[in-house]
Design goal:
128 residues, alpha/beta, six-stranded mixed beta sheet, globular, SiaC, SiaC family regulatory phosphoprotein domain-containing protein
Length: 128
């Protein structure tokens, strides 16, 4: 099993996908032009992981900001997670956002509702 770890950049999130421990973490900001490639690679890794019918996957997302193209990438990522869930993988998703950023909270809720997924949306008073 492998660990995919990509350091954060100013406009691209930190990514850590640990297959052995069945954890995925995204943290930071996402508005770089190259972020589409990052999410495409991550979705590919998740699909391969999902094809092994894992029992569970814990996902933690904390993005302080994401733009429109990142929003599409995040939606596609969530769709891949939904596919895994539909095949029996137990997902535990926690999506954090900066407390007081109501627009971000509403957008995350829209993702959850659009995909009919069950995940926690939690505002954080402090920066991680």
């Amino acid at each position: 099993m492998s660990v995919l770890e990509i350091p954060a950049k100013e406009a691209a999130p930190y990514v850590r996908f640990d297959e052995e421990n069945a954890t995925l973490q995204l943290k930071g900001k996402s508005y770089d032009d190259d972020v589409v490639m990052l999410f495409t690679m991550l979705r590919s890794k998740l699909k391969a992981f999902g094809d092994k019918n894992p029992e569970k996957l814990d996902v933690n997302i904390y993005l302080k900001y994401f733009n429109t193209s990142s929003s599409k990438c995040l939606f596609d990522l969530l769709m891949e997670l939904k596919n895994m869930e539909d095949k029996g993988t137990k997902l535990k998703i926690i999506w954090n956002f900066v407390e007081g950023d109501e627009e971000m909270g509403e957008e995350i809720e829209d993702f959850r509702d659009s995909l009919d997924m069950d995940f926690d949306i939690e505002p954080l008073a402090e920066d991680l």
